[in-house]
Design goal:
The chain contains 12 helices and 10 strands. It is an alpha/beta fold and 284 residues long.
């Protein structure tokens, strides 16, 4: 099971959500929602259908203007910045959408190179060279770069979209259901890839997921959306002990018990690589 340094007061909150409200007509999705996300952690957002998980992600990255409240990234409110400053801040984040959102008319390599050309100002040749590196980082073979999205399996689409999200060397990765539609082996490999990338590049990862295995093998903290707010955001030990009907059913039902049992039986090396290095956090 993933571990985290509980001395969160000593850690840097690079995303701060305060008093967030989202309304769509008479439907109130969020009301006075607060959440902090700390540098270097992998945090997952879970919740029942309609709890607004993806809406929260879209609000944080600036794709959804909230009805009220404030979202700060690196101490700045994205929605209040000038166009130039907002563009510079957006280059520090990468987003992987649930269905990949790759451009169907472009090859995989062209999809990855596009943000390098448009936002980093690289030439096509330089962008293609760097895109090849990102392709390898995402675990795709070199020949996949010449393929079109329609030629890819579900797992390859996820990795291609991840490579594009990594194109501009972001500080934060936002992932919407990254393992949805993957078989268990592919999902497990993707989880491990996220942990490896986080450890190698000191990334912060914010994901929306339903995958219980992902929660147990890759995440440092879990935030539960319920009653229009964040009910609890903490380690799995704390979250699973929270006395809430949905939490108890979700984590202590048959699938939750199976995921917890599988995590407990991980080899020591895998368990260590999937956990947040609290000693490193204390030193930093």
């Amino acid at each position: 099971m993933s571990a985290i340094n509980n001395g969160t007061s000593k850690r840097e909150a690079i995303i701060q959500v305060r008093g967030l409200s989202n309304r769509f007509g008479s439907n109130v999705v969020h009301e006075a929602l607060d959440l902090d996300i700390y540098r270097g952690e992998i945090i997952a957002v879970v919740g029942g259908s309609g709890s607004g998980k993806s809406v929260l992600l879209r609000s944080i990255v600036g794709l959804q203007r909230p009805s009220a409240g404030q979202v700060n990234l690196f101490g700045q409110d994205l929605l209040l910045l000038s166009a130039d400053k907002r563009s510079a801040l957006e280059r520090r984040i990468g987003v992987l959408f649930q269905r990949g959102a790759l451009f169907s008319s472009l090859t995989v390599l062209e999809n990855i190179a596009l943000p390098l050309i448009e936002h980093a100002g690289l030439s096509r040749n330089a962008a293609a060279e760097l895109a090849t590196v990102k392709l390898a980082l995402a675990g795709l073979p070199a020949h996949a770069g010449a393929l079109f999205p329609a030629d890819l399996s579900g797992g390859m689409i996820k990795r291609a979209a991840l490579a594009r999200a990594l194109a501009l060397d972001p500080d934060i990765l936002f992932l919407d259901e990254p393992t949805a539609g993957l078989d268990p082996i592919g999902a497990a490999a993707f989880d491990q890839l996220l942990v490896t990338l986080r450890d190698a590049f000191n990334l912060t990862v914010f994901m929306v997921t339903h995958d219980l295995d992902t929660l147990y093998t890759a995440c440092d903290r879990v935030a539960v959306l319920s009653q229009k707010r964040v009910l609890v955001a903490d380690t799995l030990e704390v979250v699973t002990a929270t006395q809430d009907e949905w939490i108890q059913e979700y984590f202590h039902g048959p699938r939750g018990r199976a995921a917890a049992s599988a995590a407990e039986n991980l080899p020591v090396a895998d368990s260590q690589s999937a956990s947040f290095n609290s000693k490193r956090s204390e030193q930093e």
